[in-house]
Amino acid sequence: MVEELLIEAIDAAQVPGVRFADVRYVGPRRYQRFAVKNGTAESLTDIFEAGIGVRVLRERGWGFAATSEATLASVRTAAKTAERLARASERTSKERVPFVEEAELPRNGSYSTPMKEDPFQIGTEQKIELLKDAESRLHTDPSVKSGKSSITLWQEEKWYRSTEGASYRASITHVGGGLEATAVGEGEVQRRSYPNSFGGDFAQAGFEFIRGMDLPGHAEECGKTADALLTAPACPQGELDLVLASDQLGLQVHESVGHATELDRVLAFEAGFAGTSFVRAQDVGRLRYGSSAMTIEADATCEGGLGSFPWDDEGVPGRRYPLVKEGLLQGFLSSRETAGRVGLPRSGGTARADGWSRTPLIRMTNVNLAPGDLSREELLRGVKEGVYMETNRSWSIDDKRLNFQFGCEVGRKVHHGELGELVRNPIYSGMTPVFWNSLAAVSDRNSWHLWGLPNCGKGQPGQVGHVSHGAPVGHFTKVRIGGTA
After folding, report:
1. What is the per-residue burial (b if ≥16 Cβ within 10 Å, else e) of 390-415?
2. Cα angle at 195 between 192 and 201, to 5 degrees?
3. Do the Cβ atoms of 385 and 478 come closer than 8 Å?
């Protein structure tokens, strides 16, 4: 039945003047979230949806329409509506829309997330019991006033077909979870999260990923650290060496490199909502983005990445390619249209949509900072005086992804290569190219981790993207560091 709907949509869209059309049927698309706060189930969410979206490209304009009714008549109407909208959009444009050719399109492709345990087959009671057990262990001291544990699951079945003959079916599952302990003292509130803040860590995997995080086994340390931060001294201030843990460095990559190299932002397509970029289209091969220790790749082939997939929502194969190599800008995250606008021979394969009711736009895949040769201990030995920071607490970055400030949950003094006492409320700030040019060293693969981030907002109307970032530990020199008392 789904194949009939896809064929009907393509047939209805192929009228004189149409250069390209594609159709995505997404369903079932399922979302579950379970959360326990202070011993009580706070959230039990289960959402199920399905629908179909059709895009049409004429000479000078795009059209898109969608429907939640899986009937031949509704699909035919959506396709004809998309074509009429494409005709209407041509009235506002005098230029031909560029759209690069792709030679490696799928033909009856098939993909399913590798997993051992389907998370949607695990009973609700079992999930809640795991979360209750973990949350109860966060309360290590009376100061821990609030504890929270959560699990979040996504599953999406997608069928795709285009007028170029591309077709595939994909089933992708994302899972994640984490812990959060909040301690309250005299005029002070501190939070400690595991394994990362804002919901934890996430991956393309089955429920075995949740089990592997061992939330109950890490809860006690989480609670104790939150309590200890209440009485920790304030973070040192000044221009100091900075060591970023893998989780915080992954977010730094996301905000100051991932978004900055999205070609729709570079071309100002997102100026009205998400912003632009300090990077220019002509900067490839010219912009000294960072030091020679900085090599960053877009990689849609990483095992377990939220940004991993065999084909994007334009039928383009997911691939791996450099964005920055040894500090020099090498490329962009791109779609078939934006690649054509700057003369690239092919798309970066990064066009993805948030479900059936949204049109694809450029989203990060897995944007990863390559590891180096030093162990974590060897990297620390290169720091005479500085601060180590771990796990994001707050962030702020301007519309051009240039000036930023990040606060972290945990800081530690570094003295002659040794991690010292805890410090609270650590903050660092900088300007993107200056900051990355201060990168002195990155640690090796043993401290490199692929962090999942499922809440990246972009587009208008808004879309939420799932991306991942691999990062080691990084040592930066002469960074503005501060804190609050």
Report:
1. bbbbeeebebebbbbebbbbbbbbbe
2. 130
3. no
Q: Using an 8 Å Cβ cutoff, are 329 and 283 in contact?
A: yes
Distance in angstroms between the alpha carbons of the first and the last residue of the chain = 63
User: Strand 296-299's sheet: what is its strand order?
Assistant: 328-329, 320-325, 296-299, 367-369
Cα separation, 449 vs 468, in Å, equals: 10
**DSSP helix/strand/coil, 51:** strand
- Is the domain of 153 the same as that of 49? yes
For residue 310 the two structure tokens come to: 């065999």
Q: Write out the two tokens for 331.
A: 């490329």
Do 96 and 131 lie in a common domain?
A: yes
Q: Are residues 143 and 290 in the same domain?
A: no
Q: How confident is the model at residue 485 (pLDDT cuts 50, 70, 90)?
A: low
Question: Distance between CA 389 and CA 428 in Å, rounded?
Answer: 9
Asked if residue 483 has pLDDT above 70, the reply is no
Helix (H) / strand (E) element for 98: namely none
Nearest partner of 437 among 245, 256, 235, judged by Cα? 256
Compute how many other C-beta atoms are within 10 angstroms of the C-beta atom of residue 305: 28
H/E stretch holding 166 reads none
Can you give the CATH number for the domain in which 138 is found? 3.30.2290.10
In terms of domains, do 192 and 254 share one? Answer: no
CB-CB neighbours of 74 under 10 Å: 18
Tokens, residue 359 = 């049109």
Q: CA distances (Å), 126 to each of 37, 207, 218, in order?
A: 16, 12, 19
Q: In angstroms, how far apart are the furthest CA atoms of the chain?
A: 72
- What is the tens place of the pLDDT at every residue in 440-451? 999 999 999 999
- The pLDDT tens digits of the residues spanning 102-161 come to 989 999 999 999 999 999 999 999 999 999 999 999 999 999 999 999 999 999 999 999
Backbone angles phi, psi at 337, to 5 degrees: -75, -50
**Count of structural domains, the chain:** 2
What integer is the mean pLDDT of 61-67? 98
**Domain carrying residue 426:** 238-483
What tokens appear for 417 in the block?
């290569």
**248 with 226, same domain?**
no
pTM score: 0.96
Closest CA to 362 of 235, 270, 424: 270
CA distances from 89 to 96, 162, 361, 463 (A): 12, 21, 18, 22
Final residue belonging to a domain, choices 207, 230, 253: 230
